[in-house]
């Protein structure tokens, strides 16, 4: 058995940009451009980066919700591209996703019972009383109550809706869950409850997570390892503690320094970057960070830096190293 | 310290089909000259309604300011005519929002919009207005201001739209800027740029700011003082140091403990049980009592009075007095 739950090797996902009267392909959005990443079983890997850098796309590719254009994804050592038919259906039960916006991910026409019951009717023969029993167990697990069973999503608060989505995601005992900004739409007080819930579930069911977030304090709190993305590329990966102690990639350094810390006496030298995040349809040459990088050198606009080992188990893509 | 704005007993209700939403239940708030005051609290607790009430932008129906005083530069804003208020809005008090496109008009260039804001309140000719507009764009560190003058909002990135909106809001050098979640929709690195701009510009213009945000980190880094709101009341107010280092209200403490800390290791986050109440039938007495671990009998019956903790630090909770 592989010690990794997921291994992604050189994964690419390009979305065609269509234009003109004949809807010809005029270019590509390089949403994920050659990303390799491994997640150990039972751990939480956070994927951080700014909006549009490809985090969601990468998560969807990992779960085979969309097909990669290149590269290989191994789930528990098995090549996803080679798993077909019944085997694939089996495997899908083991991989789930929770989305950022609980409002749009839950069908407003369905009751809680139908929403959480859906994976059971899609993938199992469980029905009737047994189904209700299972759903009630799940509701209990995520901190909802029996009387919620026949209510509709709009009757719940944002935090409660996210709990419903979590209950559905864990219904079939998955091994791996992609959590895509699961608390970004929530108040800090509600976020705290949901983060605690994820930790409890992870312990109880030995889950592995890919936790997508743009909030570095949340990443630090939840993750064993962190991957930093910038315009379709992975620029740094590291265990959580060392990354926060000493970020190596200039982009990671800027990201960390930009976090507003909730302590008025905590002063950092804030690195204010120039300009905006470039579009993945037209990424800068060489190192994609070079137009904004305070440490850019001549080589940076010409040659793309490889992701290479720096220090203890850390990978960094930057010509400085 | 000298007051710029003094809000007393402000009550704003919304008369809806479901019932009366008691959004503000007697707010007292001072904003000093040159300071930046943060307003924090969970969603729906009344932050935006406070801002809109100060601007007198509450729409009737269903909303109405039913009581209170808002003193600004020696005038009670609730007593002056709409005509007078219009002269103050955008000139002496300006507001910026989370969504820049709510203030920018998609069919006019950035330049013409800022120039219009300037000529509306100041007696200047076109040439001077143009110069001032470019000066404002420079002030918010807009890249390539001359080019941006001729561009339309949709041609700009989110961060640039935000800068354009700030430039417009500040073009008449208001003495008070109200910013409602100005960086919530932005990425962290762009948020850092915009907060940097807001801070510098405020200093350069010597204006005051009311900054509404749900991000306690932003408040800690940007503001001088902070007011904590819960369900239509200000429950605690003080300097950022007082509130962050020595929070007194159980709700303030709950909020502080709920955030993941970047430089302190916490295994498990503390939570505030329950959810924000509905303001049509809010809890009696202290509106926080159903969620409070320290609630006493009196908390259900009476609204806790505001008590002084130390100079400049006030809290509304029976644990600190008034319980007898
Ligand atoms: N136009 C309206 N009609 C009815 N109720 C309203 C209206 N505007 C606001 N309210 C109510 O007033 C209360 C305070 O709302 P407000 O928008 O001030 O919250 P907030 O603190 O700004 O929250 P958020 O953090 O979500 O922006 C809420 O209960 C809200 O539902
Ligand atoms: N279905 C799609 N069709 C075209 N472009 C897409 C699609 N999904 C995502 N993209 C583009 O790919 C890039 C990465 O998007 P995404 O993975 O959603 O970023 P993130 O989750 O990091 O914010 C963006 O430029 C986005 O607009
Ligand atoms: S490769 Fe060059 S431009 Fe890119 S992050 Fe490193 S120093 Fe900066
Ligand atoms: S007044 Fe009572 S219920 Fe309200 S916060 Fe204080 S102790 Fe808790
Ligand atoms: Mg996303
Ligand atoms: Mg608001």
Radius of gyration of chain B: 21 Å
Strand order of the largest sheet of chain A: 6-7-8-3-9-10-12-11
Characterize the largest beta sheet of chain B: strand count, sense, and whether it forms a barrel: 8 strands, mixed
Whole-number mean pLDDT of chain A: 92
The fraction of residues assigned to DSSP E strands of chain A is 15-25%
Give the overall form of chain A. globular
Oligomer: heterodimer
How would you describe this protein?
The complex is a heterodimer of chains A (321) and B (324). Chain A has 321 residues and is an alpha/beta fold. Chain A has a single domain (4-316), classed as P-loop containing nucleotide triphosphate hydrolases (Rossmann fold, 3-Layer(aba) Sandwich). Helices cover 31% and strands 25% of the residues of chain A. Chain A contains ten helices and twelve strands. An eight-stranded mixed β-sheet of chain A has the order 6-7-8-3-9-10-12-11, sandwiched between helices. Chain A has a four-stranded antiparallel β-sheet with strand order 2-1-4-5. In chain A, strand 9 and strand 10 (233-239) form a beta hairpin. In chain A, helix 4 packs parallel to helix 6 (158-170), helix 5 crosses helix 6 and helix 6 (158-170) packs parallel to helix 7 (188-205). In chain B, helix 3 (110-121) runs parallel beside helix 6, helix 4 crosses helix 6 and helix 6 runs parallel beside helix 7. Helices cover 32% and strands 25% of the residues of chain B. By secondary structure, chain B is α/β, with parallel strands linked by helices. The longest helix of chain B is centred in the middle third of the chain and has 18 residues, at 188-205. Chain A binds chain B through residues 50-51, 157-159, 187-193, 195-196, 199, 214, 216-218, 220-222, 244, 254-255, 257-266, 270, 272-277, and chain B through 42-43, 143, 157-160, 187-193, 195-196, 214-222, 240-241, 244-245, 254-263, 266, 268-272, 275-276. The complex binds adenosine-5'-triphosphate (ATP), adenosine-5'-diphosphate, iron/sulfur cluster (2 copies) and magnesium ion (2 copies). Adenosine-5'-triphosphate (ATP) binds at residues 14, 16, 21, 23, 41, 43-49, 62-63, 214, 279 of chain B.
């Amino acid at each position: 058995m592989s010690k990794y739950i997921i291994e992604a090797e050189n994964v690419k996902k390009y979305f065609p940009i269509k234009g003109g009267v004949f809807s010809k392909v005029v270019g590509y959005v390089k949403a994920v451009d050659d990303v390799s990443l491994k997640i150990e079983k039972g751990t939480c890997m956070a994927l951080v980066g700014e909006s549009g850098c490809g985090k969601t796309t990468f998560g969807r590719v990992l779960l085979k919700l969309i097909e990669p254009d290149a590269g290989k994804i191994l789930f528990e050592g098995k090549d996803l591209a080679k798993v077909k038919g019944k085997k694939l259906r089996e495997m899908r039960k083991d991989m789930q996703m929770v989305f950022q916006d609980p409002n749009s991910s839950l069908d407003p026409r369905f009751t809680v019972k139908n929403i959480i019951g859906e994976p059971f009717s899609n993938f199992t023969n469980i029905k009737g009383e047994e189904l209700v029993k299972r759903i009630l167990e799940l509701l209990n697990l995520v901190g909802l109550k029996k009387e919620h069973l026949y209510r509709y999503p709009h009757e719940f608060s944002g935090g409660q809706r996210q709990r419903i989505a979590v209950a559905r995601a864990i219904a079939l005992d998955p091994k791996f869950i992609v959590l895509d900004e699961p608390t970004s739409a929530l108040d800090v007080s509600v976020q705290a409850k949901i983060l605690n819930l994820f930790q409890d579930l992870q312990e109880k069911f030995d889950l592995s997570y890919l936790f997508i977030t743009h909030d570095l304090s949340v990443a630090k709190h939840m993750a064993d390892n962190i991957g930093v993305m910038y315009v379709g590329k992975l620029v740094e990966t590291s265990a959580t503690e060392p990354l926060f102690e000493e970020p190596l990639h200039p982009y990671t350094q800027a990201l960390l320094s930009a976090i507003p810390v909730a302590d008025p006496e905590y002063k950092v030298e804030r690195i204010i970057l120039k300009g905006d995040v470039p579009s993945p349809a037209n990424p800068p040459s060489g190192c994609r960070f070079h137009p904004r990088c305070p440490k850019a050198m001549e080589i940076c606009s010409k040659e793309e830096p490889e992701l290479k080992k720096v220090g203890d188990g850390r990978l960094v893509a930057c010509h400085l190293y | 310290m000298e007051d710029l704005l003094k809000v007393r007993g402000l009550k704003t209700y919304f008369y809806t089909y479901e019932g009366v939403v008691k959004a503000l239940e007697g707010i007292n708030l001072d904003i000093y000259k040159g300071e930046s005051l943060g307003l924090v609290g969970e969603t729906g607790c009344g932050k935006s309604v406070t801002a809109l009430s100060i601007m007198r932008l509450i729409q009737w129906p269903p909303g109405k300011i039913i009581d209170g005083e808002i003193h600004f530069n020696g005038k009670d804003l609730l007593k002056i005519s709409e005509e007078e208020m219009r002269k103050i809005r955008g000139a002496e008090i300006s507001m910026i929002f989370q969504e820049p496109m709510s203030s920018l008009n998609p069919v006019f260039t950035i330049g013409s919009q800022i120039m219009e804001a300037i000529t509306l309140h100041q007696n200047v000719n076109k040439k001077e207005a143009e110069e001032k507009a470019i000066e404002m764009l420079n002030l918010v560190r807009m890249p390539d201001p001359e080019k941006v003058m001729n561009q339309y909002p949709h041609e700009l990135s989110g961060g640039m739209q935000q800068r354009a909106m700030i430039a417009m809001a500040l073009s008449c050098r208001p003495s008070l800027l109200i910013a409602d979640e100005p960086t919530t929709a932005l990425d962290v690195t762009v948020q850092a740029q915009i907060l940097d701009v807001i801070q510098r510009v405020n200093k350069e213009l010597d204006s005051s700011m009311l900054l509404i945000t749900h991000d306690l980190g932003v408040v800690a880094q940007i503001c001088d003082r902070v007011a904590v709101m819960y369900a239509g009341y200000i429950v605690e107010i003080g300097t950022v140091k007082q509130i962050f280092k020595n929070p007194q209200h159980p709700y303030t403490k709950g909020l502080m403990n709920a955030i993941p800390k970047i430089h302190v290791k916490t295994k498990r986050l503390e939570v505030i049980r329950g959810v924000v109440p509905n303001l049509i039938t809010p809890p009696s007495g202290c509106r926080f009592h159903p969620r409070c671990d320290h609630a006493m009998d009196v908390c259900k019956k009476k609204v806790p009075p505001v008590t002084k903790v130390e100079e400049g630090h006030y809290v509304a909770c029976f644990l600190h007095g008034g319980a007898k």
